[in-house]
Amino acid sequence: MRDDGHGPILADRPKSGPVRRSGRAPEHPALRGRMAAMSSLPHTLSERLQAVAGVDPELRAATKPQFGHFQSNVALRLAKAEGRPPREVAQRLVEQADLSDLCETPEIAGPGFINLRLRTEVLAAAASEVRADPRHGVEPQPTQTVVIDYSAPNVAKQMHVGHLRSTIIGDCLARVLRALGHTVIAQNHIGDWGRQFGMLVEQILDEQLDVAALDLAGAEELYRRANDHFKADETFADRARRRVVLLQSGDEDTLAIWRQLIDISLAGFHEAYARLGVLLTDADLAGESTYNDDLPRVVAELEASGAAVVDDGALVVFVEGFNAPMIVRKRDGGFGYSATDLAAVRRRVGELGADRILYVVGSEQTFHFNQVFAVARKAGFLPERVQAEHVGYGMVLGTDGKRLRTRDGGTMKLADLLDAAEERAARPIALAAVKYADLSNSLVKDYVFDLDRMVQTVGDTGPYLQYAHARLCQLLRRAEAEQAQVGEAVTVLDEPAEQTLALLLTRFGETVAEVGQTLQPHRLCAYLYELAGALSVFYEQCPVLRSEGEVRASRLALCVTVRDVLAAGLDLLGIEAPDRM
RNA sequence: GCCCUCGUAGCUCAGGGGAUAGAGCAACCGCCUCCUAAGCGGUUGGUCCCAGGUUCGAAUCCUGGCGAGGGCGCCA
Description:
This protein is α/β, with parallel strands linked by helices. The protein has helices at about 30-40, 40-55, 75-80, 85-95, 120-130, 160-180, 195-205, 215-230, 235-250, 250-275, 295-305, 335-350, 365-380, 415-425, 425-440, 450-455, 460-480, 495-505, 510-520, 520-540, 550-575; strands at about 60, 70, 105-110, 115, 145-150, 185, 310, 315, 325-330, 355-360, 385-390, 395, 445-450.
């Protein structure tokens, strides 16, 4: 199971720890070229500079407005090889490069930076393209089938704040990858099989419980009682173990109770997903139990290929680079969770046709997934052409900096978190606060869970983005009421605030592509926050409805575009964009 | 013992070879007769854990420490 049935409920599953190497998307030169191609303006500038520099000018967005729009430090790097002062090299490059149709006269600054400022009409045209493009600059890539394994709660347990990360991150990545034209198949690897069902079923029988009357909270309490019972009573533990065997051998009475537990849990999950507004449906369910019938075949294939060997009574696979073998089948004949994950890889490649498989699971399982991938490669379940990536994320810590644990009373149910958020703001806004708080942190690091901060609606938060959007909607409603002419294109960019906004608009597409490649949602958050911030400045400094003529039409065009990009971006984060608030 | 990750402002976090290291929160000072103040502007606040190395240039890359966390054959 993705979720650990034994550990503390909160931090149980994915405990975390960052994943640097494995979580970071491999840099494919081909992809990079594609990304560059999609933001045509910087790409063109880059090519022109490269033509005279001979090397990639590593064009970057300017770090400050006074440095123009783009900057290159290529002269600094060339200076040594050429044996000339950097500023001199920069001067030569600037003189030789053919940039005049796109840029103002380039400036050479500091030790030898080349600062480029786009001609206003070029920037305006670029912003206008974003306005006209229904996709706002997000370019579809060569289509891949991407399987994303995320959420994965455990049966008979309520979802808690620790589950938020996998669910929210996976949902965001699914949206982003779809927007990039990929076929995304979500897989909810719920923990619906395994040892814990032995004790659950026995506890139900002991208590003569009417399972159908339970809700998920009730099931969770049952789980606790069963767990305590299991630990305290060896006789009960024995029965539980025998019950597991019954379950696995298909005993009808046992299966009937098991199914009831599943149904209760699914109802609870549905409720949570609906409340969160994530895309997961029943069609995405692919719990551990669904691989049960595949396990013997997986084992047979592993043995046939010679990958698996019997060691100390267990069937294991040794892989180079791992200090412990993967246990496929335990000494007692039961299958380890690795076997299930291998079966999942096999099905995702063979039946689902995956070109890329993502596992949104806490980083504490980095070792496990790397091993699964290695074994799957060795066994032939995972061909070279299929990418497999563990999108590991850090664990959720309490304000004391320690892992949040149920037993310490530090945990919080997902429902309680959402309730708390809704005490502060209306539902869509509360949800935005919670989701953004999670998505805006980089994945690799653990993060401190602080309820007050999580439900905050001011500052660098989801509601801030929504607010910018809502303001624009209001402004555009007024414009419509006044029958103001909204420009089809952005034509006037005299004010710095307008330019900043226009430039940011042209970066939406590349930002989304970057998230698709690096699988780091916080980059999209950062971009949108910057855009919303630029909008606020623009809003303060540039009257729209109170301006006139072409300026007004152009500013309205800018407003429409920003509104659309904010809405599109929020949608990719899985956050609603209300028209007013 | 071995492996992995993290260490940036009082707090929570961005930045991950280039210009005086950025946000938010907290604190303090301003701004609504003016398109939504869930906003904007400003002030205060930093040995980028430490030490070496590579480089024209290191918060960023490498090595070694220190500190925190995670993982390491029959839990998942």
